[in-house]
# Entry
Amino acid sequence: MTARDLETRQVVRVAVNGASRELIGAPSRRLSTALREELGLTGTKIGCHAGDCGACTVLLDAAAVCACLVAVGQCDGRTVTTVEGLASADGALSDLQRAFVAHGAAQCGICTPGMLMAAEGLLRATPHPDEAAVRDALAGVLCRCTGYTKIVEAVLAVASGSVVDAPAPAAGHAVGARAARLDAPAKVTGRERFGADAWPAAASIGTTPALPTLAMRVVRSPYPHAAFRVGDLAAFVAAHAGVVDVIAAADVPHNAYAIFPDLRDQPVLADGVVRFRGEAVLAAVGDEAALAAIADADWPLQWTALAAHESIASALDAAARGEPVHARWPDNVLCRGRVVSGDVGAAFAAAPAHVASMSFETRHVEHAYIEPEAGWAEVVEVAGGGPRRVRIWACTQTPYMDRDEIAHVLDIEPGRVHIVPSAIGGGFGGKLDLSVQPLLAVAAWKLGRPVRLVYERPDSMRSTTKRHPASMRARAACDGEGRLVAYDFEADFDTGPYSSWGPTVANRVPIHASGPYRVDAVRALTRAVITNDSVCGAFRGFGVPQSTLVGEALLDALAAESGIDALEFRWRNALVAGDRTPTGQTLAASVGLRACLDALRPAWSAAGHAASTFNAAAAASCSPHRRGRGIACMWYGIGNTVIANPSTMRGALRWSAGRGAHLFLYNGAQEIGQGTATILPQMLADAVGLPLECVEQVMGDTDRTADAGKSSASRQTFVSGNAARFAGEALRRQLVERLGFAVADAGAVALSLDGPALTGRLHGSERHADLRDWPADANGDLAVATGHFNPPTVPLDADGQGVPYATYGFAAQIAEVEVDTEFGTVKLVTIHAAHDVGRAINPTLVEGQIQGGIAQGIGMALMEEYVNGRTDNLHDYLIPTVGDVPPIEVHLIEDPEPLGPWGAKGVGEPALVATAPAILAAIRDATGAELFEVPVTPSRLRAAILAVR
Ligand code: FES
# Structure
């Protein structure tokens, strides 16, 4: 017996959530692995396997620890408490869990178990901590969604003994209520199943003996550009026990996919050439330990490095030399965007009172969702002998697009692909693109066995899309009254080697480039440049956060030259209802920017006074610290740019002996933390006129829901919200009619459910139906109705003239900062955010979106810079911790959108767009430094400060 054998047989006795357990195996294995894979306690999440994210935080005895850094052998004779151990034996939530639910502290929920356990450790040791202690205790757990504000509020509520459950809204009053998220209980108990939390135990093909699920390991390119040859894979498999197969490009029926079907350019597995560092080359399947044991150098690959073009300038130069990344795009330009309105040249030639110009650079930004991509695929025989299908469970923002692209890759009909979305631990645009799905599908399809793949953090960061780096040049002019007269903008976006969402960025940016202001003459031109750097795609704002940086800086420069206060300058130029945009669209209503600015006036004045007072005292004491304030505005078109944008939702009435009568929502709008699992039921419930608490739903399953489009572009509240509303109204008409009322009275009939009874009341008359008498269809629905909405748009012409969006979100934000001018460090003091959301369907969730977006804006402004091959982890790639996010005051402005459900628009992307420019403005105000690049790292800021001294 070897020493290794002895080690693997070791028994460790540990009390887990109060129960005595024996963990048998290698004592050096991770506690997180034992909890999840051996005890099934998947509430403990894995975000990095390196102790950076804290998602796996558990209590070891009384101490909060990262379970990924604790060896099982360290736990012998000790107690471990996981999130599954917080609720009482009868399932009642603890006060801490209730507080998280009530405060909306869980959005996607992937960090929630770790946050809860960190807070639990604090509260057990210190039952009444102050806010500083709470922030200290949570500092080791990263959250990418919430901005931490509501998490801190929830813990403080427990500390002060003031936990109050969110009241259930009455029938007809769900819209506008601060209702608790319907998915919150699953998130705070660890029951929520993310991509890595479930897998089939065995193959489900009836003709095949049950076989265990195979693991997958993806072999990736270490080069940004290289040719390669694959050796003898059959011999490789034969030589490696436990390896079942190695999938290569030749195994993929159609080895190309994309966001836009006419651009399919990205291979599932590279075929002889790789175009970015991290591109998938081989996918080995087999026993997980056997796959892990293979050294990188052992894979049968022969590489020949090629010249790589990892910047915009390098790629354009290469194209000029006739060396494109793809022959299809000889100039290395994937696409161009253009909006031209008025005569910009003439406007600048007419000697306007003030002109400002600027160049600005941004860097790659990583989504850094805490959940790495994960999922599984299996092949499914169809009852009755139909053609077999493939079922894929994975984290995705867009199940229907996944279905269609997987069908293309496998060369089968879309109806033979079944996408079952897992819960998704953050997306922000990064899970709009395929990741694990095609690799799993191809392997399962070839082998007829279920295959599972969980990305490690470096896999996730190397291989998935990023925010586009931008190289921007712009100039703006105003008249003597401070009124904008011209805006001229050119930008190149580094889109990487494959198309992804490059066309969307190139097209959306010119529309928004001149900001939410009246400008007679606008020229905005963009290019998406193909390079050998990371593939860039969708990331909360589709390029608008980048272009807003330069636009808002130019406005500050013009305001200063005009001698006009920065807020007042913006108010004077703000779009109002009736104005025309640079695309020639007339904004009929719901243009709430001036209301946003008005809401911020008190904070703006107070911030100016506070900064002056602070700086006077600092100067007197020779302190290097200086404070400043900055303001920025934004607008954002809700939904897809021009292209079709439909959503279909179905609502039904059901009855069962166990559940009683209830509504059922077929909800194809994928929940990614933003709240579609709650606000769409809120809207359905009010449209039908029944309580929110009676709504159940299925989400995103392509066999069961209709296509609601992707969860991106801030579109689900507006687009799918309308679809849910129309479905609810149609269902209500059916119910009213079946009760015997006139359909014309549908709006006046009060409906209620009681056991199996549906009751309608109108003007003192009451009618009842026993739902047990209503026949159910194959789904169990007694009545079902469909709602559909596709916002009206008009295609853009060659000059970008048309109606790209049906409505826009508007916002203004103020940042107050304190800068250490010696070290170049920036501390945020406060952020004030005023957002015109049309109507807040659920104010708690809207605030959470804004707070979370602001945290991402802070990261973009001050710290986030992804460098492929160097920052592929969460200790080199920094995102804001709870200590980096200041108090955030949110002002909700409700200027109703007539086309929106109950007037609602969207807020997911608008939340972050104004943050970084406001922070940069505040730094300029504090220091006088000129800033032309983000992130403003301490070294860059220090250099900029020295440059103006
Ligand atoms: Fe914290 Fe999503 S809720 S990472």
About this structure: Residues 319 and 331 are 5 Å apart (CA to CA).
